[in-house]
Amino acid sequence: MKKLIQLLLLWSLFISVPYSAWGAGSPPSERGEQIRVLLSSHSKQIELSVESPYSVYSESRHLLAKKARGQTLLFTQKKGDLYLGKKKLATSSVLVVPKQDGSLKFKGNRYRGVARVEINSKNKIALINQLKLEKYLKSVVAGEVAPLWPQETLKAQAVAARTYAYYHMVKGKDKSVDITSPLAQNYQGIKKEHRATNQAVRATSGQILYYRGYLFPAFFHSTCGGGTEFPQNVWSLDFKIPEVVPCDYCKDSPHFQWSKKFDLKEVEQKFIQAGHSVHGLLNIYPARISKNRSHVTEIGLLTSDGEKTFRTNEFRRILGFNEVKSAKFKVAKRGDSVLLNGWGWGHGVGMCQYGAKSLAKEETNYRKILSYYYPGCRLKRVQM
Ligand SMILES: [Zn+2]
Questions:
Q1: Which one, of 22, 2, 5, lies nearest residue 380 by Cα?
Q2: Could you give the CA distance from residue 228 to residue 231 in angstroms, rounded to a whole number?
Q3: How many Å lie between the centroid of ligand 1 and the Cα of residue 221?
Q4: How many domains does the chain have?
Q5: Given 104, 145, 150, 310, which residue has the most CB atoms within 10 angstroms?
């Protein structure tokens, strides 16, 4: 197997490029390479604590307040205006800048960097954590894989997470947010940081994957269950992406196989709640299988009104991503229920984390792990 990997892996170039040399998109250098992570966007009121002296600035960087000691700030949206405590602010967006890094606290988690608080398009309060990408990664890598996994796996995860994040920073340069936490990547602030994962982030500092010269979202997932999948088969996405690969390396994953029984009445109710008319659900079956026959890309629902098809990702979303763990499954009818027998956990696109763990045990370094799961990609170092 090692030989096969070595044949597949011709990892070569390791180029250091300045920002100005980037081919795809322009870098968010105006922000000082800070990533903007959305922490909250559904409330009309939020409580943000600062555990050190701090300043509050308006959108135009005008100093609104300077406090010599930390305190809890209550931000409220009333009739379209932003309030700090009882004071109505003359702006809809403020920046809270603590004197000491890591002294922001929101819902029990502590965060590095600064906080932007603003009224969003839905008239709710958006809380956005802005911090250096490398600091953000220290929390994300430890949130995505266990810090006690092999160091080379942690490094591969650091590069994949950095590439994914940087893609969104470049793509979202005209938006107010780059990434949503924890939906996009598992970011929970300082509490997740760990010595081993910090080391992996430092050791790969500034390293980003490019596919044929293009920045791309380096997807990753827990366990592929035998082979990876094209993103187009999971989401409505249209961009260049590495090929899919077979994967025998995640067989030891606790998520390699799964099974789940669903009562048809329960499925019917959940689909109706989600706005789909599937009254009189009689059966569920795979309607379309991907070309490499690894994943069910469309699922069919036989109802008393006829057949209806859905993207399997939508099927998973409605029934729960942790219930239908992957799109790689078979369906067996059992009376008024269906039994799904499946393989893997996650969308199956890009790097298989449990596979990356096994590869590192075979003394495969992180560059080889990355080139296995992202074939044709090159690693470049940028100044962060
Ligand atoms: Zn795998």
A1: 22
A2: 10
A3: 9
A4: 3
A5: 104
- Shared domain for 10 and 139, answered yes or no, is yes
Between CA 325 and CA 254 the distance in angstroms is: 12
User: For position 77, what pLDDT does the model report?
Assistant: 96
291/293 Cα distance (integer angstroms)? 5
What spacing in Å lies between the alpha carbon of 344 and ligand 1's midpoint?
8
Residues 277 and 336 in one domain: yes
Tokens of 45: 């009121």
Do 291 and 324 belong together in one domain?
A: yes
Q: Please state the pTM of the whole predicted model.
A: 0.85
Whole-number percent of the chain with pLDDT over 90: 76
Distance 338 CA to ligand 1 centre (A): 26
Mean per-residue pLDDT, 68-86: 95
Strands, sheet with 283-289, edge to edge from the N-terminal-most edge strand = 283-289, 296-303, 306-311
Residue 114 falls inside a structural domain: yes
Give the list of residues 6+ apart from residue 269 with CB closer than 8 angstroms, or none.
none
Cα 301 from Cα 306, distance rounded (Å): 8
Mapping DSSP to helix (H, G, I), strand (E, B) and coil, where does residue 218 land?
Answer: coil
Q: 334-382, pLDDT tens digit by residue? A: 999 999 999 999 999 999 999 999 999 888 999 999 999 999 999 999 8
CB 221 within 8 A of CB 343: no
Confidence of residue 109 (pLDDT cuts 50, 70, 90): very high
Q: Rounded to the nearest whole angstrom, what is the distance from the C-alpha of residue 351 to the centroid of ligand 1?
A: 8
pLDDT in tens, 259-282: 999 999 999 999 999 999 999 999
Burial 247-260 (b: 16+ CB within 10 A, else e): bebbeebebbebeb
Is the pLDDT confidence value at 5 over 70?
Answer: no
Residues 116 and 191 in one domain: no
CA 28 to centroid of chain Cα atoms = 19
Query: What residue numbers bound the domain in which 172 lies?
Result: 2-27+135-221+350-382
- Over residues 279-293, the mean pLDDT reads 89
- pLDDT tens digit string along 242-262? 788 999 999 999 999 999 999
Tokens linked to 258: 């799964």
Q: How confident is the model at residue 22 (pLDDT cuts 50, 70, 90)?
A: very low
Q: Compute the distance from residue 168 Cα to the ligand 1 centre, in Å.
A: 25
Ligand 1: centre distance to CA 257 (Å): 12
